[in-house]
From TrEMBL:
It comes from Candidatus Purcelliella pentastirinorum. Forms a ring-shaped head-to-tail homodimer around DNA. It holds the Pfam family DNA_pol3_beta_2. Residues 1-119 form the DNA polymerase III beta sliding clamp N-terminal domain. Residues 249-368 form the DNA polymerase III beta sliding clamp C-terminal domain. InterPro entries: DNA_clamp_sf (IPR046938), DNA_polIII_beta (IPR001001), DNA_polIII_beta_C (IPR022635), DNA_polIII_beta_cen (IPR022637), DNA_polIII_beta_N (IPR022634). It is found in: Cytoplasm. GO terms for cellular component: cytoplasm; DNA polymerase III complex. Keywords: Cytoplasm, DNA replication, DNA-binding, DNA-directed DNA polymerase, Nucleotidyltransferase, Transferase. GO terms for molecular function: 3'-5' exonuclease activity; DNA binding; DNA-directed DNA polymerase activity. Confers DNA tethering and processivity to DNA polymerases and other proteins. Acts as a clamp, forming a ring around DNA (a reaction catalyzed by the clamp-loading complex) which diffuses in an ATP-independent manner freely and bidirectionally along dsDNA. Initially characterized for its ability to contact the catalytic subunit of DNA polymerase III (Pol III), a complex, multichain enzyme responsible for most of the replicative synthesis in bacteria; Pol III exhibits 3'-5' exonuclease proofreading activity. The lineage of its organism: Bacteria, Pseudomonadati, Pseudomonadota, Gammaproteobacteria, Enterobacterales. This is Beta sliding clamp. SUPFAM superfamilies: DNA clamp.
Length: 370
């Protein structure tokens, strides 16, 4: 196995390829990436048994076919620290991958290619095409609400419901909920619902933001996996096999109060009072009375902060408490001038959205006790 590549051509592909690799893999070979030369292309492939990422690079000069696996992080760091626009020479010899550049020489150990977990046989049940910016928005608008290492493992990801006219993304950790619905035109015959794990979502987001250029993504689905083709990579992930909760039942049906607030003013006030938030509880109290919203916060040192904001007139006085981090993350993601809060009482879920009759995204946050 022998080939030459320009440094920049290699490291821009290597960085996403090594991203899912664990520092403490279940098997030593899972810290490696597979390299294989076929025709005039170098195939790079990584796997952590949950996520697979592959890519190809054209080889413009003479090469010798072959295949091996080497440490992804070592290979990336060596190439990254060579001078810009270097032409790097690679040669597999005596169970070592030799890396040359002028007076520099590195020799890194390998594990035979046939021991590397191969990309699984792929049988697709459905294929859809979606613009990159649409998938990016579906993730961006809901990702922050995913659970992290919850024992209800079906919450540790994003729920996607794919229909002919619409794709919905939903994420919840049981205390907050994010919903985004985007109108599309798909050829899918039957609605398909899947849960993509949180770690896969993180890696997928990196890939779809790899280049700012717009493109149409090809997505293939089967009962256990999702595979996404971009211009540069093939991304494959296992799916979470379980039923997602009935999230629509949490939406307030008959709110007693509809509060309208200028987003920037509310956002700035919450950021200021959060300086004195309790390090453990992170609670904030909202007091809504007539045309004033009072924001109160205190901490274990008995320090306090209070701000008042003008709102639309309310007939009922309401005192309600939230996790200020959860509340701010929702406010931050809304791109609008005026937000709307639908409140039933101080114990029920509160809906937050743009001040529009129809909106592509909405958010639910549960009150907390202080």
């Amino acid at each position: 196995m022998k080939f030459n590549l320009i440094r920049e051509d290699l490291i821009k592909i290597l960085k996403p390829i090594i991203s899912p690799l664990s520092n403490k893999p279940k098997l030593p070979i899972l810290s490696n990436i597979a390299l294989k030369i076929n025709n005039n292309e170098l195939l790079l492939y990584s796997s952590n048994l949950e996520i697979d990422i592959s890519a190809k690079i054209k080889i413009k000069k003479q090469y010798k076919p072959g295949a091996t696996t080497v440490s992804g992080n070592k290979l990336f760091k060596i190439c990254k620290n060579l001078p810009k626009k270097s032409e790097i020479n690679f040669n597999l010899k005596n169970n070592k991958l030799l890396i040359y550049f002028k007076q520099s020489k590195f020799s890194i150990s390998n594990i035979p290619y046939d021991q590397f977990p191969k990309m699984q046989n792929w049988e697709k049940n459905n294929t859809i095409y979606i613009k990159k910016n649409i998938l990016n928005n579906l993730i961006k608008k809901t990702q922050f609400s995913m659970a992290k290492e919850d024992i209800r493992y079906y919450l540790n990801g994003i729920f996607l419901k794919i229909q002919q006219k619409k794709i919905s993304s939903v994420a919840t950790n049981g205390h907050r909920l994010a919903i985004c619905e985007i109108q599309v035109s798909n050829d899918i015959k039957k609605p398909k619902s899947i849960i993509i794990p949180s770690k896969s979502i993180i890696e997928l987001k990196k890939l779809i933001n790899y280049k700012k250029k717009e493109e149409k993504l090809k997505i293939e689905l089967n009962n256990n996996n999702i595979r996404i083709y971009t211009n540069n990579f093939i991304f494959t992930s296992r799916l979470i096999k379980n039923n997602f909760p009935d999230y629509k039942s949490t939406l307030p049906k008959y709110p007693n109060s509809i509060i309208k607030i200028e987003k920037k003013i509310f956002q700035d006030s919450l950021n200021r009072v959060s300086i004195l938030s309790n390090n453990k509880i992170k609670g904030v109290k909202l007091i809504i009375e007539k045309k004033i919203l009072t924001i109160k916060i205190n901490n274990q040192l008995k320090e306090e902060a209070e701000e008042k904001i003008e709102i639309n007139k309310q007939n009922n006085k309401i005192e309600i408490c939230f996790n200020i981090i959860y509340l701010l993350e929702i406010i931050n993601i809304l791109n609008c001038k005026l937000i709307k809060m639908l409140i039933t009482d101080n114990k029920s879920a509160v809906q937050i959205q743009k001040n529009k009759e129809k909106t592509s995204s909405l958010y639910i946050i549960m009150p907390m006790k202080l």
